[in-house]
Each structure stands twice: as C-alpha cells, then as structure tokens.
Design brief:
By secondary structure, the protein is α+β, with helices and mostly antiparallel strands. The protein has four helices and six strands. The model is unreliable at 7-22 (pLDDT under 50).
Length: 201
C-alpha cells in the first residue's frame, strides 16, 4: 500500500498532535481532560487558605509558574473547580481558589470613614479587573457570579482580587467574586502553567 504526499502529511500531523497531547506536564502539574495546552496544580490544602500574593508565591515556589487559574468562561471554570475538588479542595466553606484577575487601582475609604462616589464607581467598574501583566485582558461580564459583582461592599474592604468561592454550593456560586487580596476571607491556590501564555478561552 502506498500513500500520497498529502496522506503522509496528514498522518504526520496526527502523530505530532497525539505526541503533543501525550507530553507530560512540567513540574508535577496535571492535565485536565478537555483543556488543551494548560497544566494545573493545587497547592497542598493542608497549608490552608492564604492571601492572594502568598498564593502567587506558592505557585512560584512549588510549580515554578507565576500564574493562578487564568480563565475566561464559566464552562472552563466549572471544569477546573470539579478537578480541584477531586484533588482535595474543601467544599464545605466559603474558601475557594484565587483566580489571576485583579484590579490594580485602589478605592479606599475617605479619612472620615465613608466611601466616595468616585471610589464606589471604581469598585463596581468591571473593566478595571484585568490580568496583572496584560491589562487589555478583562474579566468577561458573564464570568462574574452575578450582577452584584464586583463592588458589593461599601466598607473598608477594598476588594481588588478575584476568586471562585463556595465550591460546595454550585451552580449558585459558579463565577467570580471580588475579595480583599489580604483578607479577611482567604482562598486556596490553584496554579496554572500555559504553554503559550494564553488565557483559557
């Protein structure tokens, strides 16, 4: 049996694709079925929930990656959440896992303890929540948990970071909430390695 050049090129492409899919993830990270070119790792939950910056540092220390979960759709968020629960993420508390998006612009209270209208608008402005390194990548509207997010707090909590919370209460809580990067509510760390540096579609 002989093959044409076109058939040989097709077979070669299939083999290369299969080889790419068969490649192991680096640094003890894991693949999640259905998510190509991305590898994930859950920081040991025995370390407990942590601050956003501490989660980033643990991803660097353990997996040598500088990314937390970096997603752009609830469909992928659900897949990653179910995987994390299967890896031991507790699902009986508010603590979920941090995601990569953050609002860099601060919106604190005034000296008299009130929140100005301008800072309230900043807290509610969805377009300000971006990837730290690529501010043109904005959290899609439909990735937020509901219409109350972000900016539903008017007190001293300037919630600039994002997380998937309450893993055990789905689908009601599927989607991102904004949280204070340093607490009081802390979250676990799910790290991501992206082979081409692109966010999940």
């Amino acid at each position: 049996m002989t093959f044409s050049v076109t058939q040989m090129m097709f077979v070669t492409a299939l083999l290369l694709c299969s080889l790419q899919n068969a490649l192991s993830c680096p640094r003890n990270l894991s693949k999640i079925v259905g998510i190509p070119r991305r590898c994930f790792g859950l920081i040991d939950v025995n370390e407990g929930p942590m601050k956003y910056d501490d989660a980033l540092k643990r991803c660097q220390d353990v997996y040598q990656t500088k990314q937390l979960v970096n997603i752009l759709s609830k469909a992928y968020l659900r897949v990653v959440l179910n995987w994390a629960i299967g890896q031991g993420l507790p699902n009986d508390t508010e603590a979920g896992f941090w995601t990569f998006f953050i609002r860099k612009q601060e919106a604190p209270l005034e000296l008299n303890g009130t929140l100005s209208r301008a800072n309230e608008d900043i807290r509610k402005n969805r377009t300000l929540f971006t990837k730290p390194s690529r501010q043109n990548v904005i959290v899609p509207d439909d990735l937020w948990r509901n219409e109350t997010q972000p900016g539903n707090t008017l007190d001293s909590r300037d919630e600039r970071c994002t997380a998937q919370s309450r893993p055990g209460k789905q689908p009601e809580y599927l989607g991102l909430d904004d949280y204070g990067c340093n607490g009081p509510q802390l979250h676990y760390a799910v790290c991501q390695f992206t082979s081409r540096g692109r966010p999940l579609p």
